[in-house]
Amino acid sequence: MSLPGSLADFGPAALAAVVVAAYLILGEPVVGHVLHRRFEGRLRSDPQARRSFYRRLLVLEWGLAVLALVIWLSAPGVDAGQVGLVWPVQWPGPVTSVVVLLVLVFVVVSTRALRGGALLEAAEPVRRPGEGRHSEPAAHATLALLPRTAGERRLFTVVGVTAGICEEWLYRGFFLAVAAAVGEGWSTGVLVGVAALAFGLAHAYQGWVGITTTGVLGGIMAAVYLQTGSLLLPVLLHALIDLRFLLVPSRVLPVGRVSG
């Protein structure tokens, strides 16, 4: 696919594009960490904390997505095909197709494990020898986000679809266009690596395991996007990965706050 060759392609919108891209890779990890810590604190006493947090996520993600869209529309030198807002022009290559198939297998296997309570077991605090308190695994961050009630599940469905649309547009379509323009001549492999790093850091609140897992998935999404020239397949795959949590029954999730 054709990506912007330089920041000159963005015209007057170049500075705004760089600022938003810099926020995605540097600011989002900090903002995400702060929001999640506050959210987990509110779970102590506020039964509406989860739904309130979902709404904040929707406002934040759609706000950033619209801002990036306005910047792109202000860049007359960058067409829709250069940011992935077109139908796929080709299928992924053999290697990428196999990787995507493995991701789908992971979705199926992990969903079955989650339905059996695997995530709850992973989030059980571990007492270290000689310590009087428990450590708090990174799985706590994921566990705290999962919906418990029917109302939360409906709102989480919107969050999952929003993540598929907005995050693919922000971290693949928009961010990679800016990255390609800043790093003129960067290879596809470098762009995939940069996309993986940015997406992994955005999930820093999940700890190193979360950064690694989402980073790998972000790299796969970037590879699919760059090979197909479209955000369509990454959006569908991303939404599927997030929405699988709806299949986790409430009986394997704690009703209250996740505590260490």
Descriptors:
260 residues, single chain, mainly alpha
Notes on the structure:
This protein is 65% helix and 0% strand. It contains 9 helices and no strands. α3 (94-115) packs antiparallel against α8 (207-228), α6 crosses α8 and α7 runs antiparallel to α8 (207-228). The longest helix has 33 residues, at 150-182. The chain is globular, with a radius of gyration of 19 Å.
Per-chain topology:
Elements: H1 14-42, H2 49-73, H3 94-115, H4 118-122, H5 139-145, H6 150-182, H7 188-202, H8 207-228, H9 232-243
Provide a brief overview of the structure.
This protein has 260 residues and is mainly α. The chain is 65% helix and 0% strand. Helix 1 runs parallel beside helix 7 and helix 6 runs antiparallel to helix 9.
Order of helices and strands: HHHHHHHHH
User: In what range is the share of β-strand residues?
Assistant: under 5%
Q: Which term fits the overall shape?
A: globular
Number-wise, the strands total 0
Number of helices: 9
Q: Report the span from N to C terminus.
A: 48 Å
